Amino acid sequence: MIIKDLGEFGLIDRIKSTVSAPSKVTGIGDDCAIIPQKKGFDTLVSCDMLVEGVHFLKNDIPPYRLGWKSAAVNISDIAAMGGKPFGTFLSVSLPGDLEVNWMDEFMNGFNDCSNRYGVVLLGGDTTSSKNGICINVTVLGNCASGTSKLRSDAKVGDLICVTGNLGDSAGGLKVILQNAERSESGLKLIERHYMPMPRVTEGLSLSRESGVHAMMDISDGIASDIRHILKASGVSAEIDIDKIPISSELRAVWPQEAVRLAVSGGEDYELLFSVSQECEKGLEIPHSVIGKIIERSDKLILWRGSEEEFHGFEHF
Length: 316
Ligand code: ADP
Ligand code: MG
Fold this sequence. Notes:
By secondary structure, this protein is an alpha+beta fold. It has helices spanning about 5-15, 65-80, 100-115, 170-175, 185-195, 200-205, 220-235, 250-255, 260-265, 275-280; strands at about 35, 40-50, 85-95, 120-130, 135-145, 160, 210-215, 235-240, 270-275, 290-295, 300-305. Helices cover about 35% and strands about 25% of the residues.
């Protein structure tokens, strides 16, 4: 058997089966690990890696934007728990012939994004690379004890909601890869792809609502990500394709594929959450209701308004 046979999530399950987290600590399986502290708060920790050729093409992405994105995708995992991010560790593996200016620009983007969210770089590691650039960021955050939102708490009858629009990032990537016309809308999609804005304020607001049950960020596309909530919570979902929020830019640039990009495309870093019907009415943050949590049936997801089955991104 090779890694490809297991797939990304099969491999993570296999790794998970070799360890057990200490009691009271939430380990592998959510957007962050949760480590309870003594004085009424929990520490949240997560890490995410960006690999040249897998997550980005060096000649396509300006280093400033890669720096921004490296910070943003990590901060987003703290937002996904309803936490407040405060620090990062940055590990880089770089070819010796890389221009110093490239790294300076990378740091400008990394720090601009971090500053925007009140996050500061606290350490890291640096090594040479024989094969391309690899960036790994660890992010730390915190939240009041027991208030973080897990993937495993969705309840039958909950409404399924998302913040923002979906598919813009995938639409922007498609403009880049297909060298399509960079219209005003096309450029906006590219910006959404390179410079995601993690939903920290929204996550904090949702964390204060006891009626918000499960939450995660959308990194691999909702078709893939919602499965994590459904599997962890032992429930199924009905998703109404017509209610998926799609921007006018995505519809303008990719009219035929807007829906598929919105459902299957990754890297929007919006929040996906389940909330009781009563609580949803009073939510203060802008959001769209896209479906409902139902009892577990043989199908994990019933796609209303489409004959198609949708799948998100998975490595291998
Ligand atoms: P996210 O998309 O939110 O970053 P992932 O799908 O990458 O989450 O990871 C799912 C869970 O598996 C997380 O809790 C993560 O910490 C854990 N995980 C992923 N890869 C590994 C690994 N190599 N070793 C231990 N835990 C891992
Ligand atoms: Mg996540």
